[in-house]
Amino acid sequence: MTESELIEIMRSSVNELLRWVGFGTLTGLAAKAIMPGRDPGGAVSTLLIGIGGSVIGCGTALFFWRDAAIDPISFKGFFAAVFGAFTLLFFYRLLAGSFFREATEDDDRWMSRVRRRLRRRQVIDDVLRDAA
């Protein structure tokens, strides 16, 4: 392998990497725009979700339609990649806990009152059962 061939391989590899990063950013932003609510991540997570979504979405489309020609940077590839990024974002939010509302201090007080009442009722039921 000559030096010019090695340089051409490196140049095409860097070009392909930049295409995936740019396209991944666009698909990650599109997935975040489609899914309502606040997102638990920043710019780097958007980039990674977009790149991962591109790979997952296009790979899934190629798995189900083997004869389909899907290039990540095409109309079909964009929708497949956004679907993949949307799926990754859904699971990312699910695992980060942003789909569920955290309990507040008022909720904790209310639940402790409910538990206390249930314990009192259980004690009263036990006393009444033992007396009978």
UniProtKB/TrEMBL annotation:
Identification of the protein by name: Transglycosylase
GO CC, one annotated term: plasma membrane
Family: Belongs to the UPF0410 family.
Domain of life: Bacteria
Keyword field contains Cell membrane: yes
Protein topology in the membrane: Multi-pass membrane protein
Native species: Planctomyces bekefii
Segments crossing the lipid bilayer: 47-65, 77-95
Keyword terms: Cell membrane, Membrane, Transmembrane, Transmembrane helix
Record localization: Cell membrane
Coarse class of the protein's main subcellular location: membrane
Keyword Methyltransferase (UniProt): no
